Amino acid sequence: MLATAVAEARAGLAEGGIPIGAALYGPDGTVLGRGRNRRVQDGDPSAHAETTAFRAAGRQRGYRGTTMVTTLSPCWFCSGLIRQFGISRVLIGETRTFHGGHDWLAQSGVRIVLLDDAECRALMREFVTARPEVWNEDIGHD
Question: Average pLDDT over the chain, rounded to whole?
C-alpha cells in the first residue's frame, strides 16, 4: 500500500511540488483514490495529498473500514478529514520530518500504523533541504 503513496510523492516532486503522496484503500484492499500534494502545482493551499486522494475516491457509501496511506504524518487539516469521514486506519510512512495529528487520531479511535520508512524520510529530508521556503509556507513552519 505504501508503494502507491510513494509513487504519488515522487510524481509530485517531478512536477515541482512537495513530495507527499497518499492513497485511500477500501476495506477489501482496492485503491479507491490516490493523490499527491498539489499546493505548488495548483496554487491551492488545501490540495494536500490526503485530500487529493480522498477527492479522487469520489463519493462512497461510507468510509468505515477504509485505510488512508500517506508518506508523511497527516497535518491537522487532513487529520480532521480522516476523523470527519470515519476513515478507520492510517498507515504513515514517516513522522520524523513532521509530527502531525496522528496522536489525536489514535486517541479518537483511528488505528495508526507508523512505518518509519527510509525512502519516505529521504524524500522529505532532501526536499526540505533543497526548498525550505516552500516547506515553510505551510505545515513546515513552527
Answer: 96
